[in-house]
Amino acid sequence: MPSRRILIIGAGSIGLRHARLCKEHPDLVVEVCDSRPDGLDEARKLLGNVRAWSDLSAALASKPDLAVVATPHDSHQPIASAALRAGAHVLCEKPMTDTFASAQQLAADQQAAGRILRVGYMYHFHPGMLRLKRLLAEGTLGQLLQMRYAVGSYITLECSRSRHQRAVFGAIVMDYAHGLDLGLWLAGRAPVGAYARGIQAGRLELTSNPNVFSAVLDYAEPLLFEIHVDYVAKPQPGCVELLGDRGWARYDLLAGRLEIGRPEKEMPESETIAVERDDLYRAQIRGFLAAVEGKPDDLTTPEQGLRSVAIADALLASLRSGKREIVPTVN
Fold this sequence. Notes:
By secondary structure, this protein is an alpha/beta fold. The protein folds into 2 domains: 4-121, Rossmann fold, CATH 3.40.50; 123-279 and 309-326, Dihydrodipicolinate Reductase, domain 2, CATH 3.30.360. It is built from 12 helices and 15 strands. It has helices at 13-22, 37-47, 56-61, 76-85, 100-113, 127-137, 154-159, 164-167, 171-175, 178-187, 277-292, 302-321; strands at residues 4-9, 28-33, 51-53, 66-69, 89-93, 117-120, 144-152, 193-199, 212-218, 224-230, 238-244, 247-252, 257-261, 269-272, 325-326. The longest helix has 20 residues, at 302-321. The protein is globular.
């Protein structure tokens, strides 16, 4: 296959991970774009002799075949739209955008450009999450009644190059939009209402507003989804839990351990499902390349990305109002 140029836009921790793993593909020529000189210096040290751009307009004018958008949330739509208009297929890191209106704009720009757009939610490739999805599909847990996603991640603030979490209200919701997409992917349906609360507290060097966040999403049918994210806990605890009327399952994201409880058994079954973070990003890249080649993929589509941003919009509105908010409808 002829070589294709892939432009990694944003030389933060996620962008550099994408760049490093894209270099494993012999048919991809990796280039990096970042307005920060120190970001480009870091890219050169990590990647060796790669073409580095400081001007995005010039980089897109050179007509790359593919682009990965790994910049702060509020820049996703203008950058991804510009890359699509320049003729590139785009993999946009999560979330799709930072507002429902901008997500609608990006979806419209993708349709007009006729290029592939996918959103990088890596849980679609996580072996633990795939196991949970199979349990639901096989009916092992019966009717799904409740989901729970919980993560504590002070390390996210430590790894952030931009430190946008301190300045952007509700950044924690967008940073961990993984949970919103995961709920859509596991349940196969969208919530109708959202109630969220948050606090900013603790004697910590790094913080966000809020830095402790909890929410409940409700559905048209009997189902609840609880979400908790904090930028306090370290090391990084996390779990995904499913409750059905015939059993329950809990995957510990830190330990890589799955427990399955069934009414007919006194003790839960337990199994270890290890995961390597790089492998999740490798799977994302393979899925993106498959989509570009017209093959099936399991990445988040623009329509699915719109749904997760709609949920985030409602959660942010609820944080501000202190009331239950309606999730915008995606047509």
